[in-house]
Amino acid sequence: AMPKPASTPADSAPTAWPDVQAARHALIDxxxxxxxxxxxxxxxxxxxxxPQEVGLWHIHAVSLALNGETEAAVALWQRVLARVPDHAExxxxxxxxxxxxxxxxxxxxxLQRALQLQPDDPTALYNMAVAQHNARQWAQAEAPLRHLxxxxxxxxxxxxxxxxxxxxxxxxxxxxxxxEAARRAGAAGPALLHRQ
Length: 196
Fold this sequence. Notes:
- 69% of the residues lie in helices and 0% in strands.
- It is mostly helical and 196 residues long.
C-alpha cells in the first residue's frame, strides 16, 4: 500500500490533484469511504487528465465494479490487460466480475492466469473455487480451497464451500469430515453449512 501524501486531503477536488499519485490516493480514499458516486466521478476526472495511466484504469474499474457497473468494469480491465497482460490484480478482479455476471468459464480462465502469477492470493483462490463450483467442476474446486485453507485455516467461507462441494457430490461422510476439520481449525460456526 502506498502512503497517503500529506498534501492531498481526502476531499480535495480533482483540479487540486498535483499528479497521478495524488489522484490514485484520492480514488482509493473514496473507495475506502464507500463513496461510490464520488469514486466514480473522480475516476472519470482522473482519466480525463491522465488517459494513458493504466493504474488509474484499474482503480477506476474497481470503483465501477463496486458501484454495480460490472460490464463497464470488465471493459476497463480488458483494456488494462491489453496493455499489461500479467497484471495479476486486474486478472483476479476480472475473474470476480465474470463471477458476478454468472460467466464461470470466463471467471475460471482469468483466475487461473491470476493464480499463475500470485498462487497464494486468498481472494483469487476462493473465487476460483466458487467459479469451479458454479461450473459444477466440484473435484477441481477442492484444490484451490485446500490450498487456501493451508494459508488461512480459519477461513469459514472456504470450509463452508468445501462442505457444499462434498454435499453436491453426495459425499456425506466427506461433509462430516469437513465440518469436523473446520471445528478443529476453529472455523466452525452456525453458518458453516447453509443450503445452496
